[in-house]
Amino acid sequence: MVKKIHPKLEDPVESESWTEGIEQPLALMEQVDEDFASTAELANHSVISAKQFSRDQLIQLCRLAAKFETQQSFGQFPLTGKILISAFYEPSTRTRLSFESVWQRLGGDIITITDPATTGIAKGESLSDVAEMMNHYGDVVVLRDTNEQAIYEMLEVLRIPIINAGNGTDEHPTQALADMYAIFKWRPQLMQDDVSDDQKVMMGIVGNPGRMRTVRSLLLFLSRISQALNEVVIICNTTEPFIDGQLEELEAEGLKIRVTNELDSELPNLDIVYINAIAWVGNTYEEHGIEYKLSNDSPLKEGAIILHPLARGEELSTDLDDTQHNWYFAQARGAVFARMALMSSIVRF
After folding, report:
1. CB 211 within 8 A of CB 171
2. By C-alpha distance, which of 240, 76, 131 is closest to 68?
3. What are 76-101's pLDDT values in tens digits?
4. CA distances from 33 to 22, 145, 169, 228, 333 (A)
5. Are 90 and 151 in contact (CB under 8 A)?
6. So where are the chain's domains?
């Protein structure tokens, strides 16, 4: 009896060579000169908010990410002998795996904690005492916690850098860094000081900036390149999507923002569409704007790209996966290189 081969294996498609996707990061690198001065300022610093980063630091981190992506093979392992404490107290796939992938690619070792019930916290130990112990056991902490204030409490005691991998509904700065890296690879000209009118873009963000940490951090980074954006359109189903002072802060940086509850009427004019529907709150999640959905039937502008922090639900149809609009998988892949750039800048020896 001859066993049948699975249909997907009968006519195998050659896997994509890493060299086939390097044109975009190479084009990014050509747009700006390398400048170590701005990223050197990040050495031994914690990363809590996208607010911490200047425009130059954002651009240079993305340039360094492109350098990592085009190299693939690293001649040295700067994190050899260094230990990452990977503390994820909230479900995560891409963020946790990408951070751990980064650390191993750069030669380091990892201690992983995925449940606070396995730590002294379950016995009433304070966060400050946990942080004090981490000072002695690792060289960098990456923390995801549903408690927005946990990272700030630990920061008071930590003498090693801590990286915010998502703190409740507050921020997710390294996800936003990966988002910006994808945008700059798609159109490197947006990194320039002066962007011509024909290169400026319209961006739509489907989500709630007051409740979604990914959107909040992304908007802060977008405000660093406000000169490259014609407008950012917030598409949501709430009349007050911003928290106190948030909109004013963004507009003070020159970002032009408009809010609407319509999606399809905006899509034909949008060059970038960023969509998310989930916000983690406590031990569960909130759904925002689940009536907004993108599919291959949506009236998307020709050449427009779609970004999504993933994991996705029904808001983003799989029938877009094989279209030119799909940049969300490249966005997830690029997160490794964006975090490599960040971690190698923070951990200097």
Report:
1. no
2. 76
3. 788 899 999 999 988 788 899 999 99
4. 18, 37, 36, 19, 24
5. no
6. 33-67+75-171+335-346, 173-333
